[in-house]
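Chapter summary example: a protein plus S-adenosylmethionine.
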Amino acid sequence: MYGQGKRITTAAGLLRWAAARLREWPEPAREARRALSLACGANGVLPTQLTPWEVCRFRRIVEARARGVPWPALEGTTAFLDFEVLVPPGVFIPRPETEELGELALQVWRDLPDSARALDWGTGTGVLALALARARPEAEVWALDVSRRAVAAAGRNAQRLGVRLHLLRSQSFARVQGAFHLIVANPPYVPTPHLSRLPADVKHQDPRRALDGGPDGLRWIRELIVHGPRFLLPGGYLLMEIGPDQGGAVLRLAKAVGLWSEARVLPDLSGQPRFFWGRRC
Ligand SMILES: C[S@@+](CC[C@H](N)C(=O)[O-])C[C@H]1O[C@@H](n2cnc3c(N)ncnc32)[C@H](O)[C@@H]1O
């Protein structure tokens, strides 16, 4: 942060320093510009000179990026499909593959009757529930999570986006009433023994409860496949994200339960088995 003994305060000098500090990232110059923009609250046009306070803030952001802290955690927001959500600390940061689950869910959702009811199990910031509610404002969409922070985040995001969600703090289905046409879920599915091997950004930013799928990773997936049918209307759908190596186990489980008339595992855009698509008998 010092050039020839003097503290750097010009944007050009700071960007050079940051790009060198972030050289491990694929696009260091871009990273540096994004950090500068965040530090200065700049909307498009970057300043040429920074105040001491902005320099300090910039340095903190660059150091956090160097440690692997993801952008949504620094910026407090992230994009999902065609909208943006707030991501408060302690709430799971939505991932791009879940946007694909959102698109699958929207395809099913658009064809359901006017009185359609949907449940987003483990809503986090509310992204899946919000996508459904935005597509059909007249329908009834429930956003459920065991985490108080997550339920509050989903409520705040709904308010910001001007959509109506029914919020429910519940341990799995414990407080759920009635039956739904569609259940969507991105449950925790990382096997407990693998948690310590996750990349630093995932391990340190996302709450453990959002990731931990129990000893075999299937604890909550099993819950949804075994108990989900009780909360679905006949012909109702369960669309759920799973780990890429869990497809076989999930299909065997669905067959053993005997309450699914259709059960498939669909790939994500990279061709990895990633989504369970089930229809209740
Ligand atoms: C992987 S995150 C998914 C969040 C959001 N649906 C998304 O895709 O961004 C899993 C979510 O499930 C919630 N969760 C974990 N165990 C739960 C349980 N037993 N009952 C309800 N929610 C649970 C976590 O708090 C977390 O918000």
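Key point: The CA atoms of residues 126 and 154 lie 4 Å apart.
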